[in-house]
């Protein structure tokens, strides 16, 4: 077994403006009178400054701006530790799971190496002579990423947003330089765990499990294993073998195979396998698989993994048209999947806190009936705990590589860095059953057009380098060059709307405008609408004297919009955009903060409900919607349906109803009628009874029993309407004794906010899954 010493905990931290003192070695630190504080590992330097009383709470008011001077600092971490006796005489490695980001490492005064990528693990070998039996002293120096970016800025082809062009030249989460959903917080720190590990003489250094096939009747499957071993080469022809044992419930398998070389592969056939399914389409069982390396019957090394047996296909075309159609469809175990989910954005501006938020945030996806989560490219790559949750809860993961909204360098140096990053990330995450797609980036294809460049196909990172890495290390998983991907056919057409998968932002006007209703896409991977956090949450990050009004002179609202260039920046207008969306629906902007919050939450909730139900009602022309977004990574005014403090907005509850596997929905008016349909996003047929009535008159408009086939849609009838009326139609249905609820807002705006307030308790009462009097509080 590998021996491991965890080095997490309290370290010392020395810091100063980079270049103000010329320090090139830890021994030189004592030559200067430099500030020193305690630091947490994992941690971020800003949080250590806050803990030491040197910075105010950064999420309150405009305090986030006080971090700017520290972007040009360097940081020296140090730790004294004693290695355990059992490591004596063994080869050891220092393992840093995440360092942000331009670092140099010393142990006992000797430089071990350097790194410059916050996303990937750093392993530094320590010699027996270097590691002391007594006290060892470890130093880590972090240089300013801004100064580093200045040194690296090169190509004329490189373009990025004017407020955060630095993101192009250092491998650091793009959002940290400032985004429309995150503040500028160019942090530094040892943000994931650190350990000293002794390396064993025998090891299973590489295990890659994959599903080769699942037969059509789901009664058999084949899984494959690629392995790499480290051991005495003399063992290879003298009784060395690999043994694989797996179990999930009553399903078990075992296979042994001679090992004649340090790499190899094998195929295992499973009869009546326990298959992994996305949430809503079945259970998500995992096999516990133990792989052992044996020599003449003696176990030399052993590893245990949790794997899922499932066949995932992405069926897509390069373009789509109304006439010829197209496709962007996920199939799992030969079953088409109607994807419903949300984008995963940074969990915190300070990433050392990410993992503490995983479980609670991901549970929100399960609670709202999501079956897919898209990990957005402006973020970090999440750790195993994130994927473990998704594995066990049937949440498919769409994983962007960490590039967003820019034209990245095409230099040999950048390509080499991206190849190292992609190789590390792919090998780390590829055994997770939940991972269904690698995507080259977020909106970088579109960025070529924004900056006047004709063709994103010249991007060799996403067109050549990344697919080659995936072909080498994860060939059984789909790859998409960008989101949205603008294929050569789409570029030649000159019509970017012909991409089968799109981000539907557009004018962000009335949510039933023609932009939303006439899009030709098959799969929507971003779409959103603004909604205020609850008042109790706003009071945690806006100081009392700045709570109201919201206008463009309110610097605290602007700071949490988010806008990194102040009130003149384009994102600062998103506060006004939210107000305009309220005015569009209700005809006026409320004068009190309480009514403003409620009106914005209603506007957002109706919009996102409409987006989801429109996709479901057009199944299978539409095959998926990943709305923006579930939860904030810092307190702000945004498109999220849950705020940073886990306060649920009204949209959360409406989405929860619209995403149940079997949902009764009302389509938009046509020929003086509205169509009522039951959508079933599951593998079982469903039947029950339903009733639809007018909220004001209580008159029943349609009722009866219904049946809907597995993974299908059934029309239940039509209700006559008048375009001159504004009505709230309430929907209730019962399946196997459980009551479900939904509603439909009929008519054209402007609606009366007071009338909607009177409707809200009736909407809540249908299935009693939320309380109307708590909305916006």
TrEMBL record:
It comes from the Bacteria. Residues 21-192 form the Beta-mannosidase-like galactose-binding domain. It is an enzyme of class 3 (hydrolase). Residues 329-447 form the Glycoside hydrolase family 2 catalytic domain. It catalyses: Hydrolysis of terminal, non-reducing beta-D-mannose residues in beta-D-mannosides. Belongs to the glycosyl hydrolase 2 family. PANTHER family: BETA-MANNOSIDASE (PTHR43730). Pfam families: Glyco_hydro_2, Glyco_hydro_2_C, Glyco_hydro_2_N2. InterPro entries: Beta-gal/glucu_dom_sf, Beta-mannosidase-like_N2, Beta-mannosidase_GH2, Galactose-bd-like_sf, GH, Glyco_hydro_2_cat, Ig-like_fold, Ig-like_GH2. This is beta-mannosidase.
